[in-house]
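Q: My labmate handed me this sequence with no annotations at all. I'd like to see what the chain might look like in three dimensions before we decide whether it's worth expressing. Could you predict it?
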Amino acid sequence: MKVMQTIHQYDVSIFLWVAQRKAKITLVKLARGISKTADGPLYLVLALALISAGQEPQQTLLTCLLLGFTLERPIYLILKNSFRRHRPPAALNIPSFVTPSDRFSFPSGHTSAAFLVATLVCAFYPVLSPILFTWATAVGMARVILGVHFPTDTLMGALMGSALAFVSMEMLAS
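A: Here is what I predict for the chain of 174 residues:
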């Protein structure tokens, strides 16, 4: 239990350090914009683009994405409602810059989805890796800057999304 307490203390320290810097309006605007890219509509645009391409690699990628999200969303909801970790505004009495869709923060769904997509797309198009993993990382950082997640929420979201991308590819390969 002491390990968890130590992790939580570091988590709060990092969050508070970021929170002190979020008063810079440009950074907050940038974080809002980046966070919005992971709200969901761009994933639908990606799916429609893959459908319209109609080629084998794109259809396989689309199937991997559908399977990945079919696994990720329920696991994300189960974990979030099992851990029931309060978001920073409730846990630390600090206002956030956006209103989250629910009460709990662990793991970050935005980050999980971003890493799921980045990992799968990069498996098919490795040349996009620097761009997509930078974007996915920026999504996680944006969620902390906006005050709705602790750093470990986004770290676990990144690990979960990436892992489920590999699971979905493996399931389709067998």
